[in-house]
Write a structure and sequence with these properties.
Strand order of the largest sheet: 2-1-3-4-9-8-7-5-6
Strand content: 25-35%
Distance between the termini: 40 Å
Number of helices: 7
Largest sheet: 9 strands, mixed
Number of strands: 9
Order of helices and strands: EHHHEHEHEHEEEEEH
């Protein structure tokens, strides 16, 4: 059983009618419902909860953290950000969706501005699977077509991804690296581009399939705890190990 925490700032849905119509119970609950049949143990957390819902107890029992944010990045506590970054480096999986590219934890882990070009015009997006043998692309047949999405365009100011799984092209002509993986310390990170708040992207079966695949891929590899600092020799000097 993979323990998944879905974090959503849960601000748009409370103040924008257009978002409320699409996600009346919040993006986090739409994702939780959509991923509920995948065999995960799912909890949700939001910005307005104590410690943004990411207490030590929650983070210590989270295998993979999903993050969606947009208009309240600056309201996320630096203390909570530091805890999330540390947990990722220690092995917790991190799946960052759409405008989460500008979140404090993602930017801290990338070490770059994570900026990009954008346009909200309800354009068609085609996500092309460019690494079809990758576990995150499992079950995706060549491409995913979204009839309406926000455009993100290059240059996307991130480090060169460890692996590129999806690229997108948009009706306006732009392309974008839409499915990228990274490793930081013992943790695995998957950035997945789709998910603008005024479009029903998180109800799309293939989008949910990719996110579920990303969760399984990012699941921590359990290994002995590493030790650092001064170390004694593993054998007496001059003796040969056999």
């Amino acid at each position: 059983m993979i323990n998944v925490t879905i974090w959503n700032e849960f601000v748009h849905e409370k103040i924008h009618d257009a978002v409320q119509r699409v996600y009346p119970d919040g993006l986090h609950n739409a994702l939780a419902a959509g991923l509920g049949g995948e065999g995960f143990a799912i909890r949700t957390a939001t910005l307005d909860q104590p410690e943004h819902g990411l207490t030590d107890e929650v983070l210590n029992s989270t295998d993979v953290l999903i993050w969606w944010g947009h208009m309240a990045h600056d309201r996320v506590s630096d203390e909570v950000v530091a805890k999330v970054v540390r947990k990722v480096q220690e092995g917790m999986g991190f799946v960052v969706l759409h405008s989460g590219h500008f979140s404090k934890p993602f930017k801290a882990l990338m070490g770059t501005s994570c900026d990009l070009k954008w346009r909200v015009a309800g354009e068609q997006e085609i996500l092309w699977s460019v690494n079809p043998s990758h576990p995150i692309a499992e079950g995706i047949d060549t491409k995913i077509i979204l009839e309406q999405e926000e455009m993100y365009g290059e240059f996307f100011d991130i480090p060169t991804p460890d692996e590129l799984v999806f690229i997108s092209n948009f009706a306006g002509g732009e392309v974008f690296r839409s499915g990228c993986t990274f490793r930081r310390g013992a943790g695995k990170i998957f950035y997945f581009r789709p998910g603008h708040e005024t479009y029903p992207t998180f109800y799309h079966p293939e989008i949910l399939k990719v996110i579920a695949n990303g969760i399984r891929w990012a699941y921590p590899v359990h290994h002995p705890q590493q030790t650092y600092g001064r170390s004694e020799p593993v054998r007496p000097f001059g003796e040969v190990l056999v």
